[in-house]
Structures are given as structure tokens and as C-alpha cells.
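FAQ: What does a ligand-bound record look like?

Like this one, built around magnesium ion:
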Amino acid sequence: MTESTLETSGRNGLDESGAQNSAVPPRSSRGHRFTSYDVRAFEVPGGREEDWRFTPMKRLRGLHDGSASATGSLEVEVTGDSAAKVETVDRSDERLGTAGAPADRIAAQAWSSFTEATVVTIPKDTQAAEPVTVTVHGPGQDRTAYGHLQVRAEPLSEAVVVLDYRGSGIIGDNVEMIAEDSARLSVITIHDFADDATQVSSEHVHLGKDAVFRHFAVSLGGDLVRVNTKVTFGDRGGDADLLGVYFADSGQHLEHRLLMDHAQPNCRSNVTYKGALQGDSARSVWIGDVLIQARAEGTETFELNRNLVLTEGARADSVPNLEIETGEIAGAGHASAIGRFDDEQLFYLQARGIPYDQARRLVVRGFFGEILQKITVDEVRERLEAAIDKELAAAGE
Amino acid sequence: MATLEIKDLHAEVDTEEEGSKEILTGVNLTVRSGEIHAFMGPNGSGKSTLAYAVAGHPKYRVTSGSVLLDGEEVLEMSVDERARAGLFLAMQYPVEVPGVSMSNFLRSAATATRGEAPQVRHWVKEVKQAMSDLEIDESFSERSVNEGFSGGEKKRHEILQLDLLKPKFAILDETDSGLDVDALRVVSDGINRYTESGDKGVLLITHYTRILKHIKPDYVHVFVKGQVAESGGPELADELEESGYVRFTGKKEAAAQS
Ligand SMILES: Nc1ncnc2c1ncn2[C@@H]1O[C@H](COP(=O)(O)OP(=O)(O)OP(=O)(O)O)[C@@H](O)[C@H]1O
Ligand SMILES: [Mg+2]
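The answer part, i.e. the structure of the complex:
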């Protein structure tokens, strides 16, 4: 049996149409979260807490309870457009931590534990024509490393940044992505680790006035990858699009938790994540929280998660959640679905002579196509298409 | 000269309420190339089930009997092998495949059934011609397979595939239903273009007699409760138009002409 589960909370449940101008008081807020830079301010999670209930705690390899002390380091390489200013700074740099504070114990642990941070700055009014690629290599098998990265697009600047995680090891890190006033920043994050890797990453996204932020999150490799992405708006007119694709194989746990925190009026956010799962105990978790605070009038937000369960024994959890504290919104809605691989689609393609493997590839590519199409960096898009084909071939069904 | 022989075919489907349920109760039918067989029967008699069973849909389980294409057992082939062997099913409800463009799909299907990728230049022309014959706008090429197509647009695209893939045998499952008068003419012309060469066999499943004004059948079969109840020439269709299926079912149901 395929144990796919679907949970919904918030007012719309499965309704795809979206709510218009309606305010519903949340029963218990998931949007207003405790944050602290101090790891001691967080209790060691046991696994039953709302934030952790989907995560296999043992496979965190001690990142959550203080037992994983740093035994290695991340190797960070930055290549690409020379307009980007790249610095390695120490903990005392005052720019660090400005995009947001840690919201869970592992983020706080990473914050307390890193020794040096990489800061990539796109200077004011500069357009980086080429992508800037930040490659982060894990510390190696069974070694632990904590990291900190900040990508800052200064006012009126424009850039595409590729954040490419590779290698092995146990990694806890914080990533700050800042789009200052009227900046246009795209960040493509690729979690393509070796099979042994564990990564818990907290992404803090902050948008200035009229800033445009585009995020593509791609999770393919690793034993456990858990990514927390929180978007905050500093002023009006912020526009955030967050797209994600993930492909969980046998034994993999891929978890994406998103929080769109609308505290400013007239901002927009759109979240679309799609995942495929195959193989025994392949596991994905998607939590999409949207908080529209009382003063965030004119907010427009939509979030969507779709999962394609390709084989028996894989399991996807999807929890969208919308908290609305003002009646004056432009539109809000969410949708979430977990589907079995569609036999009808497969039959239709095969009935036209297309062999099974190719038909399967077409359907899965089609499923992800809507998102992959929007990746403007050709090499990255092609790499992902190839990776997805490879995953499908590996299933050997 | 090819032959499609269906012999004493029994098939069942798993239903939620009743467990497995036998729908085809012994179908016998032979279609030779060059012949058009109209296949008519009341709702729920199992016409689509027969079409799906021959095409190999996983939902329908064949319990006994055989389907031979030029003496080869079709039931032992996978769905795609059947199509490559020359069988085609135009579905009553064509399936939407999001994210796969019509042009990619058609090319993949042509490559598979022809055994090699068609030359790009010829192919583009061929598709263009076939689309314009069926009065399909070029913009459909870039749309996802059947996604958001109207009922009539889906049917036109089924016939587009028929014209491009030119299978030995085509089972057309209610391709006429849901079409307005103009669309019916366009689609019928498409089917007639396909059979023009004289070496194709067609099993034309229909609930109505109106399509038979455009496509002249050589044989007409009445299908009731999972079996062929009677076979005859075109005059049988005339009788059905006059008096419906009542003689076969004992119930009053007109073969609506609409
Ligand atoms: N997947 C299924 N689950 C349950 N019952 C089914 C299924 N498919 C077919 N049946 C039943 O089998 C019988 C025959 O259905 P079928 O669709 O083959 O009839 P049909 O002759 O094509 O009817 P129509 O003229 O309405 O298209 C019906 O009673 C139908 O309800
Ligand atoms: Mg039918």
C-alpha cells in the first residue's frame, strides 16, 4: 500500500479557488514563531513537537541536541559574474544575522557554531549579466560542519545566484538572502549531496521596498535534507516567488518548511513546490505556512504543493496553512495534493506506441515541467532534467 | 491483407461495490482490412470495455478468449507493443497529460510506431497538413496533451493521431459523440481519409446512427450485455434507427438520432 497522507489545515483545505477578503482567527498560530540567536533559548526537541513531528530525529546525527560538534568545515567556492563582491568574514561582522533570527534549535546551533561566513554582495545599481555560482562542499563523511552564507542584493541591483550544495557529511547552516529596495534577486538552491549527507538549512529571506525575489529550491540527494525558508517583508511592494522541486528515492527524507510572513501591506508571495517519490520509505514533507498580519493589507498570496508518488512504499506529507489577521487582502489561497502515478496517462501514451519507460519519463517531466521551464539558467535546468531522468532510470521498473 | 480476430473474449473489471464483475461475456468478431464495422449497443453494454480490453488497459482483466492480429496473440503483448503492432484506440474520453506538449507527444508516438524518428522537415509538413485537414489551430501543438481541450477538440485530436499513425486497425469509441454537425463532418472526413487506401480495418463504436451518414459501414453489429447479439449489413442500422434496441434488450431505448 502507498501510505500517502494528506493533511490540511487553515480555512481552505483542498479548495484551489482561494479565499477572498476573509479573515479567520487562527486557533493556534504557527506564523508567529519564537526566534533567538541563543541556542540555549531552545529546548532540545524530542520529536513530538509540531516543528519536528515529521522529522526522523535519529537521522539528524546530533545536530539538534548539541552532540554534533564541528569536526570539519565547509569549502565554499564562488565563481561567475565579477560584479559580485565576495568576502569571507568572521562572526563579528555586523551585517550577519540581519535577514532574520534562528527559529529552531538547529538554526541557533549553526548560528552559535560557525567560525567564518561568506558574504556575496551585488553592489548598488549593478546588473550581474552572468549567474554567480556559490558551490558549497560538505565536510566529508561523518564529519560535521556549520556554515553561514549571506547573499545581499543592494538597492536597484539585479542578479541570479546559484547555491550548489555537494558532497558528504553533516551540515547545519543559515543562509541569508536579502533583496534591498527595488533589487531583483533570484537564488537557485540545489541540494545534491551524496547519499550519506545530512543537512538542516535555515534560509532567511528579507525583501525591501518593491524588491523582487525569485527562489528555486531543488532537493535531490542526501539521506536527510530539511530546509526551513522564511520570507519577511521590510516594506511595501515586495514580490516573492518560491518554486521548488524535489525527488525522493528509497530511504531519503526531504523536508521543506516555508513561512511567508506578511507584515507589510501590498506585498505578494507565491509558493509552488512539486515533488516525486519512489522506492521503499522514500519520504517527503512539505509545510507551507502563510501568515498575513493585521497591517498587511492588500496582500496577495498563493501556495501550492503537489506530490507524485511513483511507487508503493513511498510517503508524502503536505500541510498548507494560512493564517489571516486582516480582512483587507487582495487574495489568498492554497492547495495541496498527493497523487498516485497516473495509470490513465501512462496507458494513453503507451496506447500510442510509446514504450513504458519513455511514457513514464514524459509524464514525470511533464509534472515538473511547469517549474523547470522557469529556470532561466540553461545549465542548471538541463542538469535537473538529466538528474530527474537518471532517478527514473534508476528505479528500473 | 490483415485480420483482427476476437474469439470468445471474456473480461471483467474490479468494482468497488460488487468486487469483480464480468462485462464481456464471450465476444466473437472478425475485422479484415478494408472493412468498416459499425458497433452499436445500449449504454453500459460493454462497448468501451471491449475497446479497452483489446488495447490492454490495466483495469480490465481478460479471463478467457483470444485476440489475434494476423494470427499473433495480442493479449500477450504490452499496451505499447499492441500499438506498434498496428492497433489503435480512439478513446471515448481521451486522457489529459499535463506538461507534455502535443507536438512532443505526436512525434514520440510517430517515432515509436514507425520504428524511427520521422525526418523533421517532412514531419512538420505532415503534421501541419493533418491539423489543417481537421481544422485544428496550429497553436494546439504547444499545448499540453488534451489539457483544457473541449470535448470536440479532444475527438479531433484522436483522429489527428489516427491520420498520422495510420494503424492497421482502428477502434473508434464514440468518436462522434459530443460533436456538433460541422465537427462531425470534419471528423468523419478524417476517418474516411484514413480508410481511403483500402487496407485499413475500422471498428466504429457508436451509440447514434448519424455518423453512418458520413461513414458507410460494411457490417453492423448489435452489442448487448457483453456479446454480439446480431450482425448484419447496413440495413441493421436502419432498423436500429427505426425501432431502437428494444428487440434486443426487451427495454425501450431508442438509438437516438440527434
Ligand atoms: N472501471 C469500472 N468500474 C466499475 N464498473 C465499470 C468500470 N468500467 C466499466 N464498468 C461497468 O461495465 C459496464 C460496461 O461499461 P462500458 O463503459 O464498457 O459500456 P459502454 O457500452 O461503452 O457504454 P456507453 O454507451 O455509456 O459508453 C457498465 O455497467 C459499467 O458501469
Ligand atoms: Mg463507452
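Follow-up question: can I read anything off the structure? Yes, for example: The interface with chain B takes residues 343-345, 347-356, 358-359, 362-363, 365-370 of chain A (CB under 8 Å).
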